Amino acid sequence: MDVKKMFRLFLAVAFLLPFCACNPKEEVKPQKPYLRLSTSEKTVTNQANTFTLYVESNVSWTAEAKSGWLSVDKSSGEGDAMITVGYQASTVEKRSGVIRFSTEGLNPVELVVTQTELLFTNPIGTIPDPWIVKHDGMYYTCWASGNGIKVSRSDKLSVINGAESRVWNCPKDLGDNKVWNPTNVWAPELHRVDGHWYIYYTAGRPASEAGGSYDNQRSGVLRAKTDDPLGEWEDMGMLYTGDEYVEGIVPTLDNTNYAIDLGVFYLNSQLYAVWSGVPQKNAAGPQHLYIATMENPYTISSNRVEISKPDKVWELRTGNVNEGPAFLKNTEQNKFFVIYSCNGSWTKEYCLAYVALNDTTLNPMDSRSWRKSLQPVFTRCDNRTPGVNGVGHCSFTKSPDDTEDWIVYHAKNSEQDGWSSGRSTFIKKFTWNEVGTPNFGDPVGYGEESELPSGETL
Fold first, then answer.
1. What is the pTM of this model?
2. What residues contact residue 60 under an 8 Å CB cut-off, 6+ apart?
């Protein structure tokens, strides 16, 4: 290259350098202003007292009690703050008031305080994997107890009746006749299908027979002999949960796959089963959610189809697990949800998410029909209600007057990993977002009082 060409190139580069963004200084964008509260609703007793509210913000704000019986210890602040809310004693059965938080340029946010004598205290029991179903004005609770299953009945959602009935015990081996389900009963669910009662349960062979693993856990079903869930039951056998279905196949440990937490639902006149399983035969692997059609409440009639697997960062924190499916339908907006638990149940990160059919006319057996939530929908909140960790494995029911939706779930009694500290049973009212998705809010705290379900009395 001659000298003139080099000189022209030098001038061109020198001219372009001021406009080159090879090493630009990173621009710091201003954070958008926000103002939010740790909760939008709070229920308190009729006696005078106080409670703590957390304000999260990056701007200055003001707080004003709009009802004379409410007060705040800070009428203004900037950034995050802890507010003490006071309330006076009440002589009426129930009243509500509002505390409004405002800042320039944003819509106000409000805390609604309900004061009532109609209260109950969470937790309501010590049952893990709680299952409560309502029928004819009564609430039936179903749970595993040793190598068997118990059911109790109560006329109140907030009270689990201690007078339970042991409705089933695992069968025992008879000589060389080895049954598939002599032990390890997990997470039974009570369902009423086609006018009859069924319990779907998990059980298996002793872990010692599989090198200490639970590879032989499978799903089975019981059928009530009468219309009384506390009466006699018969075992209808193992359910088929494999990949080689043919009509009339008899489920065995050899032709099925590991399967736990199985439940059933009707959609568009077809009965389906959904459970947590693994891609291979043994339990050593990620737990996915599978669906299959059912010929009747005790017979699966298809191969399984995967509808969810742990593939998001937030469901891979402590374990490669999707389990505990429960079902919700939004009839008004034509949506159907499989609410499931993810992360390890033995850890504080256990939480709820969902996969949804955004239109119930979609084919549930087509994995492409399902859409996963963008984030967990119910998770630990120990910075606001200390000790509430590992929330999950839920069921759903209605208030006594059928006007409210309630979630039933368990929480760990400790933030430490493991099951030795136990799990407790909680119930909480939930609502629906405008887009038709469930809004579970934050978990309630240990010893926290809540308003009784609508229609329930003391």
1. 0.87
2. 76, 77, 78, 103
- Judged on CB neighbours under 10 Å (0-12, 13-18, 19+), 186 is middle
> Backbone phi, then psi, for 18, in 5-degree steps?
-65, -20
**How confident is the model over 190-206, as pLDDT tens digits?**
999 999 999 999 999 99
Enumerate residues 6+ apart whose C-beta is below 8 A from 203.
Answer: 170, 180, 181, 182, 183, 184, 185, 186, 217, 218, 220
Bridge partners (DSSP) of residue 423 are: 412
Is 340 in contact with 353 (CB distance < 8 Å)?
Answer: yes
Distance CA 373, CA 367 (A): 15
Q: Is the distance from CB of 399 to CB of 456 less than 8 angstroms?
A: yes
What's the mean pLDDT when you consider all of the chain?
91
Q: What is the distance in angstroms between the CA of the first residue and the CA of the last residue of the chain?
A: 97
Q: Is the pLDDT of residue 17 over 80?
A: no
Two structure tokens written together for 250: 């008899």
Residue with token string 């939008």: 40
Cis preceding linkage at 123, omega within 30: yes
Give the pairing type, strands 41-44 and 109-116: parallel
Amino acid at 197: W
Residue 253, C-beta contacts closer than 8 angstroms, at least 6 positions apart: 180, 205, 216, 218
Tell me the CA distances in angstroms from 292 to 146, 209, 266, one per residue in order.
29, 29, 12
Please name every residue paired with 61 in a beta bridge, in sequence order, or none if there are none: 77
Nearest-angstrom CA–CA distance, 100 and 325: 38
Contact of 411 with 424, CB cutoff 8 Å: yes
What is the helix (H) or strand (E) element at residue 10, kind and residue range? helix 3-16
